[in-house]
Design brief:
The structure holds two protein chains of two kinds. Chain A is 22% helix and 35% strand. In chain A, the strands form five sheets. Chain A has a five-stranded antiparallel beta sheet with strand order 1-3-7-5-6. A five-stranded mixed beta sheet of chain A has the order 17-18-13-12-21, with no helix packed on it. In chain A, strand 12 (282-292) and strand 13 form a beta hairpin. Chain A folds into three domains: 40-172, Particulate methane monooxygenase, b subunit. Chain: A, domain 1 (Jelly Rolls, Sandwich), CATH 2.60.120; 179-257, Helix hairpin bin (Helix Hairpins), CATH 1.10.287; 282-412, Particulate methane monooxygenase, b subunit. Chain: A, domain 3 (Immunoglobulin-like, Sandwich), CATH 2.60.40.1580. Chain A has helices at residues 2-25, 40-44, 185-207, 212-220, 230-257, 370-373; strands at residues 47-54, 58-60, 64-73, 87-92, 98-105, 108-109, 121-130, 134-144, 148-160, 169-171, 177-179, 282-292, 297-306, 312-319, 322-325, 341-342, 346-348, 359-367, 386-395, 400-408, 410-412. The longest helix of chain A has 28 residues, at 230-257. Chain A is α+β, with helices and mostly antiparallel strands. Chain B has a single domain, classed as particulate methane monooxygenase, chain B (Up-down Bundle). Chain B is built from ten helices and two strands, in the order ααααααααββαα. Chain B has helices at residues 11-44, 47-50, 59-68, 70-83, 88-109, 116-119, 125-138, 141-164, 180-187, 212-238; strands spanning 170-173, 176-179. In chain B, strands 1-2 form a two-stranded antiparallel sheet. In chain B, helix 4 (70-83) runs antiparallel to helix 5 and helix 8 packs across helix 10. The radius of gyration of chain B is 21 Å and the shape is elongated. The two termini of chain B are 29 Å apart. The chains are: A alpha+beta, B mainly alpha. Chains A and B meet through strand 4, strand 5, helix 3, helix 4 and helix 5 of A and helix 1, helix 4, helix 5, helix 7 and helix 8 of B.
Chain lengths: 414, 249
């Protein structure tokens, strides 16, 4: 019996080792950014990205592409997330597979953090230069201090070519043109090798002689003072003086070589210019909203009043970057990512044109697998079970009006 | 052979065994410090050491020496009082920098493709040499802490300036002025490191104008003195042999 037990234990141990070894060799590429794991209310009630455009699906190394569009900073920002007083327009990519050649909010370059105002809508653009070949999921992204990353919609972009050909030429204010990809490398290697060699020399000076056992015996027998000789002290002093002299001399020559240097630049950029949005002539009141778990559908009862001078129809509901469209009113022509687009996902019980001055109560259903795939259905497990999103109404000429909705959401499990 | 018999039969064999023992201990000490010190430094110095756009005149200069003097102080305590060997600081820093270079080259560049000129480690060797020499010459923990610790803080910035100065050359970029290091931070996207996390050029040392680095270095040196004492006693405690029954020293 004991032999069998021992064998089982041995085989189990071998199996464990094999599993661990196999796990080490299994290293798939991490292509996405956990966007589906982020709490649904974070994506639905903070930053609403819309009118997004990825300028290219495929781009060669050294070529550029842009992501542009707008984002609305939700006025009903959740209490559990810090307000976007210090925010950074980032880009969600797996490391520097692109370089961020530029990023703008409202036409202003934003290499630093910015302050955003609740309830405002901003235009943005990010210019990317391809660096590393592969298929990359490129997301819009806003980092908020105290709130974390708020990731927006992502689209697959293919980078072709070879990273070895990538160049990042920059002209400095001193008139020198450098390739930032390799600039200063030889200087870094030289100084690190130099100081490492000096450190090794100090170490070699001591380890060439017997070390631990005889010295410990000498100290134990009260002969500690004999272990450091006068020569040792002279050599040590030489090392210290040489070190300080080299530091001083190298600093002096560096200052001569680079007479113009500036400190790192930091600071918050305030006063971002929002888009002047026209006053909406449509008013929407959410009478109730529920999410039917088995049907993966959200149903809203809305009372819509048209205060404008042309008839309108509801064409789109956009939440957390997922777009639910009524194809009779709106069809996507922007090549929006398929997984985030429910082309026939919006149904309205009566979507006939709402005449000027008319008020109508409508039943709106936004249904698609995206509720599950993007884990938006998890909203029902959030601490503040409310939903929010953008409704887009269109008139016969295609003029669009954006209305924000925000209301409690009641789950239905049957 | 019984446990009470010697493992060697001649003086030559004893010398050879002692030397083999030296190399084994050195290897173990070097790799153990490499691991422990590296983790400690990544957790405490972290981004200040990782990225050029964190290597500023105020906080990098202040933080890096304070958190870096720890293991050198502890290693000195052990190697000096047990063996009168004054290379505890240098061996610690050499181990740390080897580990850092492996990490930066294999991981930062090899796996995630951040250019090495953006993520190279800080140079700590000048301060470590001075720390060891002061201990050897003075044989005093107090003098080593005060003179060596202060020197460790003071030598840090000038010891790194020849390496980072080229990256502090200014550039005009889309209508804004920034250094090349700032531009590296902007260009080479760190999805998990938004700009506001960067702790640079913060503080109240405005009356010193542009000459703030020496003030920061002095402050760093003063705090390094205190940290030296603390970690020196950690090192002494860690190298106790009370657990060996025959040696209660």
């Amino acid at each position: 019996m004991k032999i069998i037990k021992d064998k089982v234990a041995k085989l189990s141990f071998v199996a464990l080792l094999m599993s661990l070894t196999a796990a080490m060799f299994y290293t798939p590429t991490a292509s996405a950014h956990g966007e589906k794991s982020q709490a649904a209310f974070m994506r639905m009630r903070t930053i609403h990205w819309f009118d997004l455009n990825w300028s290219k699906d495929s781009v060669a190394v050294n070529d550029t592409m842009t992501i542009s569009g707008k984002f609305h900073v939700f006025a009903g920002w959740p209490e559990t997330v810090d307000k976007p007083e210090v925010s950074f327009l980032n880009i969600g990519i797996p490391g520097p597979v692109f370089i961020r050649a530029g990023s703008w909010i409202g036409g202003q370059l934003v290499p630093r953090s910015v302050t955003l105002e609740l309830g405002e809508t901003y235009e943005f653009k990010v210019l990317l230069k391809a660096r590393r070949p592969g298929d990359w999921h490129v997301h819009t992204m806003m980092n908020v201090q105290g709130g974390g990353p708020i990731i927006g919609p992502g689209k697959w972009v293919t980078v072709t070519g070879s990273m070895g050909t990538f160049v990042n030429n920059i002209t400095t204010l001193t008139g020198e043109t450098i390739n930032l990809e390799t600039y200063n490398l030889s200087n870094i290697y030289f100084w690190h090798a130099f100081w490492y060699a000096l450190g090794l020399a100090w170490l070699a000076f001591w380890i060439k002689r017997p070390l631990f056992v005889p010295r410990h015996i000498a100290i134990s027998s009260g002969k500690a003072d004999t272990l450091i000789s006068a020569t040792d002290k002279k050599v040590g002093l030489g090392f210290a003086v040489a070190t300080m002299a080299i530091v001083a001399a190298s600093m002096g020559t560096t200052n001569e070589k680079y007479p113009v240097t500036t400190p790192l630049q930091a600071g918050l950029l305030r006063g971002m210019k929002p888009i002047e949005m026209p006053e909406a002539t449509v008013s929407v009141k959410v009478d109730d909203a529920s999410y039917r778990v088995p049907g993966r559908a959200m149903q809203m009862t809305l009372t819509v009043t048209n205060n404008g001078d042309s008839a309108i129809r509801l064409g789109e509901f956009n939440t957390a970057g997922v777009r639910f469209l009524d194809p009779a009113v709106l069809q996507d022509e922007t090549a929006y990512p398929d997984d985030l687009l429910a082309e026939e996902g919006l149904t309205v019980n009566d979507n006939s044109p709402l005449a000027p001055g008319e008020t109508r109560t409508i039943e709106v259903t936004a249904s698609d697998a995206a509720w599950e795939v993007y884990r938006l259905a998890d909203l029902i497990y959030d601490p503040d079970s409310r939903f929010a999103g953008l409704l887009f109404f269109f008139d016969a000429e295609g003029n669009r009006q954006m209305v924000m909705v925000d209301a409690p959401l009641i789950p239905s499990f049957i | 052979m019984s446990a009470s018999q010697s493992a060697v039969r001649s003086r030559a064999e004893a010398v050879q065994a002692s030397r083999t023992f030296d190399w084994m201990i050195l290897f173990v000490v070097f790799t153990a410090i490499l691991g422990g010190y590296h983790i400690h430094y990544m957790l405490t110095g972290g981004d200040w050491d990782f990225w050029t756009d964190w290597k500023d005149r105020r906080l990098w200069v202040t933080v890096a020496p304070i958190v870096a003097i720890t293991f050198p102080a502890a290693a000195q305590a052990c190697l000096w009082y047990r063996y009168r060997l004054p290379f505890g600081a240098v061996v610690s820093v050499l181990a740390l920098m080897l580990g850092e270079w492996i990490n930066r080259y294999m991981n930062f560049w090899g796996w995630t493709y951040f250019p090495v000129n953006f993520c190279f480690p800080s140079n700590l060797i000048p301060g470590a040499i001075v720390l060891d020499v002061v201990l050897m010459l003075s044989s005093s923990v107090t003098l080593t802490a005060v003179v060596g610790g202060l020197g460790f803080g003071l030598l840090f910035y000038p010891g790194n300036w020849p390496i980072i100065a080229p990256l502090h050359v200014p550039v005009e970029y889309n209508g804004m002025m920034m250094t090349l290091a700032d531009l590296q931070g902007y260009h080479y996207v760190r999805t998990g490191t938004p700009e506001y996390i960067r702790m640079v050029e913060k503080g109240t040392l405005r009356t010193f104008g542009k000459d703030v680095a020496p003030v920061s270095a002095f402050f760093s040196g003063f705090v390094s003195i205190i940290i030296y004492f603390l970690w020196h006693f950690f090192g002494k405690w860690f190298s106790k042999t009370d657990f060996i029954a025959d040696d209660a020293s």
